[in-house]
Design brief:
This protein has 205 residues and is an alpha+beta fold. It has six helices and ten strands; from the N terminus they run E-H-E-E-H-H-E-E-E-H-E-E-H-H-E-E. It is 31% helix and 38% strand.
């Protein structure tokens, strides 16, 4: 899968307007071949900051949409001052996914720089961590992505039922054991180690 990620800082007092516009943009994507889903996620540390995730089968499907009248035109009528983009890795491809039995709208986001030549070790660590998420309970999915528009960038998105179930993972003895016995020095976190979001709008085909 191919993921397009954006982080938007919404102008004060225009949150509803911004969400409505983003939902409309996603409705233009919804009937297009290769569209998998789109999410609007509100940052739990700042209600005016939103993470936008748009998922496609592949980059070619996304580019084909952007070449349509709808895909090339929606950015031209954005209301002035509605929101501003914040720096983040934009294009990603899915490397591995772990699924659970739960459903929820609590999303954990982490970006990393992977050490040169350590991708296999990095994915080994993430796969083990993802299994611990599942065993701790409350996991819908954990997805690990590789950045396409920069070298050695990685993105982790973990969707869970809520903060309480996430804390079971944080405090897990298995997680502590993995930290001591697993491969070391595989990556460095970008910015804050973890960011917590609530998925407030979601569209699927």
């Amino acid at each position: 899968m191919f993921l397009v990620q954006e982080i938007l800082q919404v102008a004060n007092g225009r949150n509803k307007e911004a969400v409505n516009r983003l939902n409309w943009i996603h409705s233009l994507m919804q009937p297009q071949p290769g569209f998998v889903g789109a999410q609007i996620c509100q940052y739990l540390g700042n209600s005016m900051r939103h993470l936008i995730l748009r998922i496609w089968d592949d980059k070619e499907s996304y580019q084909a949409f952007r070449e349509t009248p709808d895909g090339s035109g929606y950015s031209k009528n954005r209301p002035p001052g509605l929101y501003e983009g914040q720096p983040c890795g934009r294009e990603w491809r899915l490397l591995q996914e772990t699924t659970g039995l739960a459903q929820g709208n609590f999303l954990i986001r982490c970006e990393f720089d992977v050490a040169e030549g350590r991708w296999d070790d990095y994915l080994t660590v993430k796969k083990a961590q993802d299994r611990i998420h599942r065993e701790a309970g409350g996991l819908q999915y954990a997805r690990n992505y590789q950045q396409l528009d920069a070298d050695n960038g990685a993105l982790l998105l973990v969707r869970k039922t809520g903060r309480e179930d996430h804390m079971k993972y944080v405090e897990s003895l298995l997680k502590s054991a993995l930290r001591e016995t697993g491969p070391q020095g595989t990556s460095t976190a970008r910015g804050d180690y973890m960011e917590y979001y609530e998925i407030i709008d979601e569209m699927t085909p």
